[in-house]
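Dear U.,

For the methods section draft, I wanted the exact inputs and outputs in one place so we can describe them consistently. I've listed the two proteins in the order they'll appear in the manuscript figures. Please don't edit the token lines directly; just add comments below if something needs changing.

First protein:
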Amino acid sequence: MQRRHFVALIATAGISWLCTAVAQESRVRRVSMLLALDESDPMGRSRVRAFRLGMRDLGWIEGRNVQIDSQFVGTNSELINKHVMELIKLAPDVIVANSSPVMAALRPAISTIPIVFVVVNDPVGQGFISNLARPGGNITGFSFIEPEIVGKWINLLGDVKPDLSRVALMFNPNTAAYFGAYLRSFKASQQETSVEIEAVPVQSVGEIEPAVAKVGREPGSALIAAADPFLVAARGTIQKAADVHRVPIISAHRQFAVEGSLMSYGPDSDDIFRRSSSYVDGILRAAGQFTSAVTDQV
């Protein structure tokens, strides 16, 4: 009787461990997205859709084995911080973070939840990761553009505007300070050229129209709308001012050209969001394998 009782205990324990492992493996994982766009912005909706499609292609089906939450916070620091605090309480399996303002709030607040940043410029220079090869810590992801693209934008503007003599690079130093460094890097490596380039910092929507008007008063001028979440949100104001003052615009984001700017040149941000799903997939599967390994050893 004692031997049978002992065997029964072993069998029960084995079934218990197996059920625990299966439950952990079949648990619905939670992925939270924090985007620096407005919920009504077609760019935001398109990026979330691209990420969800990427996850689906990798076998993550919403309602079955994953829940994907998306929060649109713009560049409002109070709203960003509020959602960061909510994420700490929610404790999702992975956070997908878009924009420098979002990363600046997440990095010091969360060190235990994996964070995948998407469409973030100069992540090393901004201190989000230690280096590109080995990010370290709980953060990894996809950067967007490099300083060299400034020269490409100028060349493209020159191709369609033969009298180009002056280019204004517009950005908000509060949300895209790295463009100051990008511009200095470009000027340091610049070859002899007749085109003058200068920074045009704007910190509010109200500063955009006067800045564009000033550019328009200079003959042979054009405007670069930097890859800056503030400018993305204010692109309607920028385009309206550019139409009034007849200023050609180039941007890294395709949506600028779709909505009336002269041209765009830059990586496909939707494709980057879709490819970021592979990083999230790797993190979720690695966590599942770790859980199984620990369970097997118990």
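Second protein (the one for the lower panel):
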Amino acid sequence: MSDWTITPSFVDSAIAARLPCLDAAFEAEGERITRDQISEVIRIDCDGTRYYLKRYIGRGLHIRRLLWVTRIESEWRNLLHFACWGVPTADIVAYGQQRRFGVFIRGAMITREIPDTLDLERLARQRPEVLHTRAHFDNICRQLAFVVRTLHAHRFTHNDLHWRNVLYRPDSGELFLIDCPNGHFWRWPVLGYRIVKDLASLDKVARQYLTRTARARFLLAYRGILRLDPPTKKLARQVLRAHTRRALRKRLGF
């Protein structure tokens, strides 16, 4: 069984006419951006707009093909959640997958490119003045805090919340969250651990480019307070301990 859904905003678009079904999505050609054992991403130009087509095949997914929500399904569901929650993200054009006797065979998703953006890690390398200008940094900090706080308020964690998955548009100062195939809803007490993991993932790169004061300002914005209080200090210690545990696991080869 195969299904393919075109989102309402793109029903009459040129890209929907070009890729009207899952078969067409797998026959499409474009500029290859990434490829691994189970997936690939290509970029397609259509009527002056660029789109990203992500395709997954069954090879390598093992038991998840049969029992769990597939990786591609998880990704489009999560992006739809983001849009519903008011979190800026890439617009989804279409998505779908094919199963045979309940077993995942292949799946695909098309998103519209977010133009004129850099991920935060590239921004830090190529335009460090943006992060070190108070007005620009406060703008990024405020938006990122809103995004992360919104996810966590819905008991959802990204689980791959690295700077490379946060896009920034320097001209307008807008922030976007992308690439979330591992995001998941949790309940306490696991939720608390996962929240710390998200924050530690952000801080892993932040500690390379930002001062402790700047990183503390992000935590204040995330918590929605103006001064450090005992719960925020406790959260900061948990984030730092997560770095220590990660470093230890890496040394031990886990």
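Candidate sentences for the figure legend, describing the second protein: The chain has two domains: 2-112, 118-252. The chain has ten helices and eleven strands.

Thanks,
Y.
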